[in-house]
Amino acid sequence: MKVTNSSLRLAVLLFSGLSAGAQSATPTLPPTGFPGLDHYRASRIAVYTDDYGQLARYRDANAALKPPAPNEKRVIFFGDSITDLWKLEDSFPGKGYINRGIGGQTTSQMLVRFRQDVIDLLPHAVVILAGTNDIAGNTGPISNEDIEKNFASMAELAHAHNIRVIYSSILPVHNYTAQAQDFFAQRPRGRILAVNQWLKDYCSTSKFIYLDYFPALIDDKGLLRKDLADDGLHPNKAGFAIMAPLAEKAIETSLQQ
Questions:
Q1: DSSP structure class, residue 97
Q2: DSSP 10-69
Q3: Domain 29-65+73-256 in CATH: superfamily?
Q4: Cα diameter, the chain
Q5: CA-CA to 190 of 20 to 30 Å: which in 4, 110, 145, 212?
Q6: Which of 181, 169, 186 is nearest to 38 (CA)?
Q7: How far apart are CA 31 and CA 110, in angstroms?
Q8: pLDDT exceeds 90 at position 29
């Protein structure tokens, strides 16, 4: 059977759904039950379809970054908005730690950019803080098992390139403010604790460092202390002040190994 140009064009149109009637359709995502999350996901359609891992975010900065000096032990903080918002230069003055956080990202997105934003920068160690947005469903529903597989894939990639792995616990959340209600409801405490337990066990078995922020940040109810995050999720200055020495201790342990 001979394939003509016109039949090929028709097949492409049918495959892509770009027929005359479909061209005007607006892409939609299934509702999550949380209007705020639905609005956020709808606002990210272009990201999900055009640059899922958001490689463009740090591409230029990475290109401008010089290779580590002979005696330099480069450290990268890799994660979502909690890392993105962390002013590392204030918490770790003079250390030169590199921030590669992107707000809203899940482990599936981070895995896409792990080579560009971690491996290619030749660090000695990487501090990974992720998972809260997976549980919330930012890029769609995902099981704990698949979150854990993403964690394992990043660690295995790092290990293959002689990069020391420091896995941070997923942070607790609270529901003490109006801002916090949805964030809290989207992140069941049981799932956070379950993934954290897996991370702790995985790090123990694999000889990675587990950076457990949880005990230092919770109140007597087991929730994130109200004074450490206005929206129940993202640490404020006081929250980062508690986290910084814990991270520094983990990094020092890694550098000594």
A1: P
A2: HHHHHHHT-STTTTTPPP-----S-HHHHHHHHHTHHHHHH-TT-THHHHHHHHHPPPPP
A3: SGNH hydrolase (3.40.50.1110)
A4: 74
A5: 110
A6: 186
A7: 24
A8: no
In contact, 114 and 90? CB cutoff 8 Å: no
- Torsion angle in degrees (nearest 10) through CA of 100, 250, 142, 198: 170
In whole angstroms, what is the distance from residue 142 CA to residue 210 CA?
23
Q: How far apart are CA 36 and CA 40, in angstroms?
A: 6
What are the extents of the domains in the chain? 29-65+73-256
Look up residue 90 and give its amino acid.
Answer: D
The CB density around residue 72, as the number of other CB atoms within 10 Å, is: 13
Order of strands, sheet of 125-129, starting from the edge strand that comes earlier in the sequence: 98-101, 75-79, 125-129, 164-168, 209-211
Closest CA to 150 of 119, 189, 112, 116: 112
CA–CA distance, 61 with 85 (Å, rounded to integer): 17
Question: In a 3-state reduction of DSSP, which class is residue 70?
Answer: coil
Tokens of 4: 């003509």
Q: Is the pTM of this model over 0.85?
A: yes
DSSP 3-state assignment of 125? strand
pLDDT of residue 26: 56
pLDDT in tens, 151-183: 999 999 999 999 999 999 999 999 999 999 999
Structure tokens at 112: 């896409």
